[in-house]
Amino acid sequence: MTEKHQYDKKKLIILRAALIAIGAGVGAAAVWQYFVYFPDVVRDEFEPVIIVVSGAMLAVILALSAKPFYRLGAGIAQSVIGVVSRLGIKGVIAVVLGLVAAGMFVFIVDVIVGTYQDIWAVRLLVDVLAYVVFAAVCCYGFTKWLTAEPDDVEPQTVKRGYLLAAGCFADERAVSAAYALSGVKVCDGAYRALCLFDGDATAVKRLDALIESGAAEPIACKTPFGARDEYEKLEIELADKKRLRYIAPSGAEAPSDGLSLDLFAPPSAELMRRFEIKTAAESENISDSTVADDISGRIIIDK
């Protein structure tokens, strides 16, 4: 990007002229004041030369810094305009209050500096720098204060992730749900629940495969249960406590912020192979003794 597009030439010329005048005035005045309070530092005939040279040097330094000052001013102006346009009247009030508060702080700073320093040029420089700093801090503070929400307004509870009910694993669509969603969790009591209430070895295999692959993550639940209703209530409460959306089994009623397994399509054969899960036809070949042994091996006993 060329300089023509970065700077407005007229504004840059005006800014450079202003900086030259400020640099010459402040530099000459500061040295002049120094000689007033310490007259014996140099001979009187050398003082005018030193005053002129000091003013000229500061004027040159500021003139060469015109572009950084231009960018700084443009950035501050854009920030103020952005706050005012985004916040409307609150933005205007915040800026005005910030500038007024900065002036009050600078008055206190000037009184403190004045007790130790009588050179007014030094005090002026300190006041200007202090005003710039306090103005930025105060404007930012008032903007945050005026746009802050009341304390009695509770933020909305955002649920991130899902809790897959144990009853879902009797359906192949549990694989589709675990694959399609992120942050899927399973209660660690699901193994025991499947054994007590369903006795389905295929469901256990699905649960096991999804956990081993990382598609679902078990979460601890130390609450004991004995009946199906107790476990289903436990799962719903756990989902709400962990800020998870509850996925209910097919045909069961899901909470208002939950999902039903009926929303998911059956998994493809490729997806089943990805999780190394046998299809329903293959699972029918498992003998009853194998089923019983596999389920009993997955029981988690609550102590």
Characterize the structure shown.
The chain is mainly α. 63% of the residues lie in helices and 5% in strands. The chain has 13 helices and five strands. The chain has helices at residues 3-6, 9-37, 47-64, 66-87, 89-114, 120-147, 173-180, 190-198, 201-213, 228-241, 269-274, 280-283, 288-296; strands at residues 162-164, 184-187, 217-219, 245-248, 259-260. A five-stranded parallel beta sheet has the order 3-2-1-4-5, sandwiched between helices. Helix 2 packs across helix 4 (66-87). The longest helix is centred in the first third of the chain and has 29 residues, at 9-37. The radius of gyration is 37 Å and the shape is rod-shaped. The protein starts with a helix and ends in a 7-residue tail after the last helix. Mean pLDDT is 78; it is low at 1-5 and 280-303.
**What's the β-strand tally?**
5
| Helix-strand string | HHHHHHEHEHHEHEEHHH
Averaging pLDDT over every residue, what do you get? 78
- CA radius of gyration is 37 Å
- Side-by-side strand order of the widest sheet: 3-2-1-4-5
Between the first and last Cα atoms, what is the distance in angstroms? 71 Å
The global form is rod-shaped
Strand coverage percent = 5-15%
What would you call the structural class?
mainly alpha
> Roughly how much helix do the residues carry, as a percent range?
55-70%
Considering the chains and any ligands shown, give keywords for the structure.
303 residues, mainly alpha, 5-stranded parallel β-sheet, 5 strands, 5% strand, rod-shaped, disordered C terminus
